[in-house]
Amino acid sequence: MVLVLAGCATAPEHENFKQVMGAQVGKRIDDADAYPVFYRLREVNAKPLPNGNVEEEYAAGRQGECRLFFEVEPLTRRIVGWSFDGSERKCVIVPAGPQ
Description:
- The chain is of the alpha+beta class.
- It contains 2 helices and 4 strands, in the order H-H-E-E-E-E.
């Protein structure tokens, strides 16, 4: 029962995370208000995709345990898609600022 309640408590934070990430699509990855810049995320990896875009990987979440991926169009540097790898508890929005 406790695990069920704990799982429910994290859902709103994760839903917020997904909404914020969805709102990044269309922004330039280098814009001051783009999530990776605003939250000063550490870029972990970048790799070319078969369609010519680049996948940029960042360490996100409370302790960098969520892997956040942005698909970026290289000429415009616009975010065209995103995904994540991590649990609902790890992939959440954390306050901006020095960490």
